[in-house]
Write a structure and sequence with these properties.
It contains 18 helices and nine strands. It is of the alpha/beta class. The chain folds into three domains: 201 residues, Rossmann fold (3-Layer(aba) Sandwich); 111 residues, N-(1-d-carboxylethyl)-l-norvaline Dehydrogenase, domain 2, CATH 1.10.1040; 97 residues, N-(1-d-carboxylethyl)-l-norvaline Dehydrogenase, domain 2 (Orthogonal Bundle). The structure holds nicotinamide-adenine-dinucleotide (NAD).
């Protein structure tokens, strides 16, 4: 993976104004006015970029426009960092395919359904003017397979924004073998004009962020079924440097998105991804997270207090394998060792250039901070030899705890993941 701006401290390398951007004079259309479509539209308006939004549910699109207009007018908005009444006219509705297509960049943000996304992309493409780029905000679908529906796959790529868009300055820009250099250049310029950091990488399952998140989120569910206490899981995650506990993160993403991403990673890596019965049960009960008015937690207040409602506790209890009480250290290892192992695999596969880039992506895309200001920063502070020892008793839980060759090599040489000699330190 190539960071468009190669400095590891990517937070600091963002330009402070958007006037030099290629797309600052251009227009953007967003298809899908849900959680992500609204966030991307708000980020465009914040950056002074004109944006149209559409949705098959007209009321949802109207509500999105109204919400952003209100945000422009009110400091007490849910987008506290962009408040500029002058930005109001930058957001409008697109009501038909011609209006949607009349833009420099079209971003598709409809639900994570391959057939739905390909049908929309193929429907819009004939209306595009030459040079317009299309991008998908898919979390997990193959960008190459989506592009097979298009006549001009060179003008298509993935733009994986992170939730909440307005708070997370990372965009994973996903290219296929057919995506043109010019498309990547323009999309990166657009991301930069949003005051975001484009991380360019090739198409691969879960891209980078979700590939690392899924083992961590899955392990949370396994821990719950093994009897771990929710408050302790949340405490271990936040003490590590995650901005919130993992169950609150599930609710933010939406359980439908979590299931779609999990499924796609399970297909790619069945030997180590554990499909969760609990997640399916939650989905079937209609608890999709904040977008459906409640997921693991009913309200944000419940999330802060680690208070699950009785119905969710029943779903967990019915599936519990034991009532083991686990220490915070034991929980931290269960949560973050699979995360680290997956990160080492992305290095082994050259999906990412170096550990510093992985950590920078985790800070800007996930908001990881504090002592865990990156999974490799944490691993280096512990040391590969100790990490291998920590993994030994966990092997019995499954392949997901098998050390990778990169970790074993670092342990044998007693080196950090950035290649420095630990004896010399
Ligand atoms: P969402 O369910 O909140 O919103 C999707 C919107 O698309 C809805 O308003 C729906 O009415 C609309 N829609 C459905 N069919 C449509 C059609 N045919 N034409 C136009 N609009 C249509 O979903 P979301 O969470 O915003 O996710 C959208 C995409 O973004 C998915 O691909 C998801 O994987 C991806 N994504 C989600 C997150 C996240 O945290 N939620 C993060 C990154 C990427």
């Amino acid at each position: 993976m190539e960071m468009h701006q190669p400095k590891p401290e990517i937070q600091d390398s963002r330009p402070s104004n958007s006037s030099e951007s290629l797309h600052s004079q251009g227009t953007v259309s967003i298809i899908g006015a849900g959680v992500m479509g609204r966030g991307i539209a708000a980020a465009c308006v914040r950056a002074g970029i004109s944006v149209r939004i559409s949705d098959s549910n007209f009321a949802a699109a109207k509500e999105a426009v109204a919400q952003i207009v209100t945000a422009c007018d009110s400091r007490a908005s849910q987008y506290p960092r962009f408040v500029d009444p002058a930005a109001r006219p930058l957001i409008s509705l697109a009501t038909d395919d011609e209006e949607i297509a009349d833009a420099d960049l079209i971003i598709e943000a409809v639900p994570e359904d391959f057939a739905l996304k390909t049908a929309i992309l193929a429907r819009i493409e004939p209306h595009l003017r030459s040079g317009t780029i299309m991008a998908s905000n898919s979390s997990s679908l193959s960008i190459a397979q989506l592009s097979a529906a298009l006549q001009a796959p060179g003008r298509f790529c993935g733009m994986h924004f992170c939730h909440p868009v307005i708070e997370r300055p990372l965009v994973e820009v996903i290219h296929t073998d057919l995506t043109s250099r010019e498309t990547l250049r323009q999309v990166c310029a657009f991301a930069t004009s949003l005051r975001m950091i484009p991380a360019v990488m090739r198409d691969s399952p879960g891209f980078l962020l979700n590939r690392l998140l899924v083992p961590y989120l899955n392990e949370t569910l396994e821990l719950l079924l093994d009897g771990a206490d929710i408050e302790e899981i949340d405490r271990a995650a936040t003490a590590f440097g995650m901005p919130q506990g993992p169950l609150a993160l599930f609710d933010e993403f939406g359980l439908d998105v979590a299931i779609a991403v999990g499924r796609s990673l399970y297909r790619a890596f069945p030997e180590r991804i554990v499909p969760s019965e609990l997640l399916i049960a939650m989905y079937k009960s209609g608890r999709l997270g904040r977008k459906s008015g409640g997921g693991f937690y009913q309200t944000q207040c419940d999330a802060s207090a680690g208070r699950l409602d009785p119905h969710i506790m029943d779903l967990i209890r019915e599936r519990r394998r034991g009532e083991n009480s686990l220490s915070e250290n034991a929980i931290t290892r269960r949560l973050f060792l699979p995360f680290l192992l997956e990160a080492t695999r992305t290095l082994q596969e050259s999906l990412v250039a170096c550990p510093l880039v992985v950590d920078a992506v985790l800070r800007s895309g996930l908001g990881m901070s504090g002592s865990g200001s990156g999974i490799f920063a944490w691993a280096n502070s512990i040391g590969a030899r100790t990490l291998v020892q920590w993994l030994q008793p966990l092997h019995a839980l499954g392949n997901r705890f098998e050390p990778t060759s990169l970790l074993l090599d670092a342990a044998r040489k007693n080196r950090s993941f950035s290649g420095t000699d630990r004896n010399a330190a």
